[in-house]
Design goal:
The relative contact order is 0.10. 78% of the residues lie in helices and 0% in strands. It is an all-alpha fold. The radius of gyration is 19 Å and the shape is globular. Helix 3 runs antiparallel to helix 4, helix 4 packs antiparallel against helix 5 and helix 5 runs antiparallel to helix 6. The model has no long low-confidence stretch (mean pLDDT 78). It has seven helices and no strands.
């Protein structure tokens, strides 16, 4: 989903008129549904193949996940965010919601900082298994899973002398469209 959000925001900045006038209205919903379906299928495969005793094929499923992560999702996320960053730095910041781009940047940054090590460790487990490192990677992945709401609240309350109001107000402030 981070890849889809990053690519969609990049397309929205590069071709704003196409996005407003010609982009199919259900495109985001369809893409999110397909990505959730893919995630469910892959999680089901990992559970069925790796956890239910079919371990002879577990390496193929985990290898496929690593391949998708490193060769497809991560490069698209990096490329779209780099393009977005360059485009926004060259244009005036007044036309864009700086908070939304800050949230996207921080979410992607923390994904690479906390989420990718687990994928790297799973890939390295094919060659050598180090229990302590794997547990640290699991901890980092847990931090990655729980950091997004913190990012939303902090960015939503940014610029205020102190946080006033509810979490709902902070979230509305992050995602409001000016």
């Amino acid at each position: 989903l981070l890849t889809a959000i990053s690519v969609e925001r990049c397309v929205g900045v590069l071709w704003p008129f196409w996005c407003r006038c010609r982009r199919p209205k259900l495109l985001s919903a369809i893409m999110c549904s397909l990505l959730w379906a893919l995630a469910c299928v892959l999680a089901g495969l990992v559970y069925f193949v790796c956890d239910l005793g079919h371990s002879e094929h577990c390496w193929m499923v985990l290898g496929t996940l690593c391949f998708l992560n490193f060769c497809f999702f991560s490069p698209f996320m990096v490329l779209s965010n780099v393009i977005l960053f360059i485009k926004l730095r060259r244009s005036s910041w007044q036309h864009h919601s700086a908070r939304l781009y800050t949230v996207i940047f921080l979410t992607v940054f923390f994904f690479f900082l906390f989420g990718i090590p687990l994928s790297v460790q799973i890939f390295l487990n094919f060659f050598v298994y180090i229990n302590f490192v794997f547990e640290i990677c699991l901890l980092l992945a847990s931090v990655n899973s729980s950091i997004n709401p913190v990012i939303y609240v902090l960015v939503g309350s940014c610029g205020k002398s102190r946080f006033r109001g509810s979490v709902k107000v902070a979230l509305q402030r992050v995602f409001e469209d000016r």
